[in-house]
Amino acid sequence: MNPARKPILVIAGDAGGAAALLPVISALANRRHDLHVLAYGAASQIWLKAGLAYRELPASNVDPGKILRQLTPCLLLAGTSMNGIDWEKQFISAARREAVPSLALLDFWSNYRERFSDDSGKLQYRPDHIAVMDETARAQMIALGFGADGLVVTGQPAFDCLAAVRRRATVEFRNDLRSSLNLSHEKAVLFCSQPITRLYGANEAEPRFIGYTEDSVLRALTTALESLAAKRPQSITLLIRPHPQETDYKAPLPRNGIEIRLATQPDELEIALAVDVVVGMRSILLLKAALLGCKVLSFQPGLRGPDPLPNQRLGLGVSIYDAAALEPALEVLLFGSATAPDVSRAWDTLPPHATERVVDLVEMMLESKYELSRQAGH
Question: What is the CA angle 354-17-147, rounded to 5?
Fold first, then answer.
């Protein structure tokens, strides 16, 4: 039997994993692999918007083993999630029981153990291989107890499209985007929200608290922008991009000199290209925007522990951990001589052609499975 025609089961629940898997799914389909795609949570929104056909998984009453036996895939390809449901973990566990090889695709530099561990912290749900973004992620995971075997540096497939987007981002293109967003000559800031409270807690009494929440950061940002608007003749527009998991987001009321509104259209990268500064906490959009040449500010006041966002490590944009430094930094970025970051070193660090690397890894695993099956006489 030709291993290229053997079925692959794909599953994702969180937005980051879904976005990273999307170009991989497309490439596998183009190579005529048979795909069974399962989604739940925020991943459904990502794939629905992209026009990808998938089967929706409910939040409960799912039997991963039964699904695997029904579909008989030769490989499980999974994202990673931290959404309280985490079907990927259960499918990885079931795949092990059913002797189905498994590959997980990482999309960000944080919560490595949590993505693959049980409630006791044991790496119970580690798949056969994990595709990671770069050598830094691989080293961090090895230091956290992941064996080196099975950790494969592929790059981040969601970044593969950025070079083409950047080539398209002419001055005329940007002006058209600003017009579509009703931004005239005022200064514009994009805030990339995240469900920090849900993931890490809201105060010091909670063990995973990281020193701030999305609400405390947004309050500090609007206060700083209001202060700047009082000093400057130009008005400021604050666009808020809710995270896909923030389905009932309510924008704060306008402040003096600041218009505040939600921005869910157009594409998140196009919004980033249209504004003057992109502000957030640890959103991957801050990294994507910086790689596109946008001015970017990561604001994580009182951060506890290391910063998972690689922007500072890669020399991309401004990273602030002290609330008092926010307003001066914004003033320089919005009204001063600050320029976009030099992205050349970052592009040299991040592996290129990530989608192709992941697909090659998938096909290598399929070939190994095929050879083992053939030798066993099946």
Answer: 70
